[in-house]
Amino acid sequence: MCDPDHLAWVRVHLKEIETRLELLNYVMPAWLAALIVGVVVGIVSWMLISKAMRTLQTMEMKPQHTVESLKEDAQWIKEQIS
User: Residue 41: CB partners within 8 Å, gap ≥ 6?
Assistant: First the structure.
């Protein structure tokens, strides 16, 4: 299912966001603090997703080793039939 280390990482970052929100509540209204934290989290998320999509677009998704192996198998079969 989910890796426990990954869940711990998520919990740590959620706690960090909560702490920043609470600190901002001391200097501004709660709604403004929540808006600022939400915008920052949204921008960071957008940046991470954009980078991941660019990385995936440049990756070769075809299993090259498998394709070559299948071609070799097909050639071997042709030789056995002939």
Answer: 17
Reply yes or no on whether the pLDDT at 1 is more than 60.
no
H/E stretch holding 72: helix 64-81
33 contacts 17 by C-beta, under 8 angstroms: no
Domain carrying residue 29: 4-81
Size of the chain in residues:
82
Cα–Cα distances (Å) from 3 to 6, 9, 41, in that order, read 5, 10, 23
Position 30, amino acid? A
Total of domains in the chain: 1
> How crowded is residue 27: how many other Cβ atoms within 10 Å of its Cβ?
8
Q: What is the pLDDT of residues 21-67, one digit of tens each?
A: 999 989 999 999 999 989 999 999 999 999 999 999 998 888 888 98
